[in-house]
Design goal:
Blueprint: H1 15-25, E1 29-30, H2 42-53, H3 66-80, E2 90-93, H4 96-107, E3 113-118, H5 124-130, E4 134-139, H6 149-155, E5 160-166, H7 178-188, E6 194-198, H8 218-221, E7 224-229, H9 230-233, E8 242-245, H10 248-261, H11 267-276, H12 281-284, H13 286-300, E9 316-320, H14 329-340, E10 342-343, E11 345-346, E12 359-363, H15 368-380
Parallel strand pairs: 1-10, 3-4, 3-5, 5-6, 6-7
Antiparallel strand pairs: 2-8, 7-8, 9-12, 11-12
Length: about 375
Amino acid sequence: MQNINSKLPEVSTTIFTVMSQLAHKHNALNLSQGFPNFEASPELIDLVTRGMQNGYNQYAPMPGSLSLREIITKKTNSLYGSHYHPETDITITSGATQAIFTIISAFIHPGDEVIIFKPAYDSYEPSIKLYGGTIVPIQLTAPDFSIDWQEVASKITSKTKMIIINTPHNPSGSILSKEDMLQLEKLMKNTDIILLSDEVYEHIIFDDQKHQSAALFPGLAERAFITASFGKTFHTTGWKMGYCLAPKELMAEFRKVHQFNVFSSSHPMQYALAEYLKVPEHYLSLPGFYQQKRDFFLSMIKNSRFKFIPASGTYFQVLDYSAITDESDIAFAERLTKEHKIASIPVSVFNLNQKDDKVLRFCFAKTEDTLKRAAEILCEI
């Protein structure tokens, strides 16, 4: 056997794959992995077919088709009062995770420190480790998962190269407020720290709250990469389509890596998305669409033994099961899947030292029938 010196010796199969496989094995409702179980818009699918029929079957330009970059920058600048330029400040990517990996690849050197907030999306840490970066974790705590900005200030050093934020936040469903972003802007002033702002759920936000994009704050926008996901926005996670925004100088470095990472993303899908985005209602209607699902799900489990604070964004709802059992969240999630036929995600796997707050994450991007069946199960526990 060849002696393999793994760069990621502690990384195993993701919890999303583990729980989805367990759900399949035990024929359980899968509210674990974050994907809708309903179809995307037939119009959008037809537009992909039209793109193929119209000859968009060879490589797209490396940064992405100009028509798509133009409509995205128009959308972003309109929503947030920003000034992104379609030729220099945006790159179309093969999903937001590819964008995140490419940003880290382009900027993190051995010994650089990267501040992340846990529970954190599980792609951040392995990407940082691959390039020799040092992870500086700040643990958030249920039920509100708010950030202590004094703690953040205490963790910034001369080695801090990057801070990664995620709003709306996966897995907690919380959001950063305007005051949060102003605190962050103040902390980053007069530094060379890069901000990676993971905003893949930007259009899934509830109760008339506003998404506080890094693009809204000049002191953040000048140093920020913003990542976004068409898979999350338009119920097409299998397409792996996203994009990344940043000032010209930062984006130039991003593209140096991107061109050798994937070079370019699906051309007919870029054609389709450029056409579909011409109707703003296709994304502006999403808060109402998903809030209806959130409210339906929560109304169905209000008499259960689970406790909750309604998610402010994303299509995930965290449920506190501490009144039910003292089991670890991993053990309880496994038992729910095997015995009660419903799969969720134990949040401790995203925490520092697997801190267990006795909460599970459920995805409510499901049909009403699926949510009703899930609620019936939860109410019986």
